[in-house]
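Mods, move this if it's the wrong board.
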Amino acid sequence: MSTRLESPDRQQTVTAPAERPTPLRHRLLGPRYALTLVLIAMIVAFSVLPASGIAFRSPENVQAMLANQAVGLTVALALLFPMAAGYFDFSVGAVTAMSSVVAATALSRFGLPLPVAVTLAIVSGALVGLLLGVLVAVWDMNGFIATLGAATLLGGVIFAYTGGLQITDGIPAGLTDQGSLDIAGVPRIAVLAAVLAAAAWFVTSHTPFGRQLFATGSNARAAELVGVRVVRVRLLSFVLSGTMAGIAGVLLLARQGAATSDNGMTMLFPALTAVLLSTITLDLGRPSVAGTVIGILFVAVSVSGLTLLGAPAWVGPVFNGGALLAAVAFTRLAAGAVRSG
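Not the wrong board. Structure tokens:
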């Protein structure tokens, strides 16, 4: 803005400093950490409320929450790779359940050594991911249809093989101990999930592939123009997803001590909620490992605290569904704010 000052002998122009717009990062600072602050507030509230405080802050409850969410976090990490590339992989829950059945069958029916059974479970997940990657990335099939169809197919195969029964025989203590014992008060399975999260964080945040992954998901055409091999990146995202889901299947078997006929859908939606929640915290507009961890803890703390307060059993599914809808809505708002900034 400029102001013109005139005098009898000369004319002078004085330029006043223009008002600077608030930087986008400052406008988004609140939303970026809102979910984290809400999580902290909920932990404090459930810890001090008379009806839930003693039970909520007990070491047993904390250990149970960490152990119970280890599998869910691993499934969410499996979902994160395709989502970063621009796809929703609805098969991760079914692949997790299938890998659990593969490991249990290798141990109980064929008597294979534990390392071999674990390897077969992980490889089976990777092969499903490879197949989906070929269908979606190479053959350009609709990702929603391909992954949902694979989930339905695997769920049917699991039920047909197990007959709706659990596989409990022959599961060695060396595996179940990983799901039930702890290290210095921290569940072993939670430590394993943390290691997997650290590995996923390194791949997505500190490798060229991670940058290519997000570039592909953001704008595949632009990424291709700068030299990114988009088809390969998409294919690898599904392979990594299947591999991580295979590992989740092994952790599920370790935690439960048995493989069930569950089709995996019960594991999909909490994982999907966590990954979508990650897009509205820390790194707005795109999924992140750290945000996924916060999303998993947010759902776990909420459901545990409300249950201890006497909430009925339907609160968990309702909360998961509500959080999922809220995450989708806020993701749209955050994306709009980034574009307008």
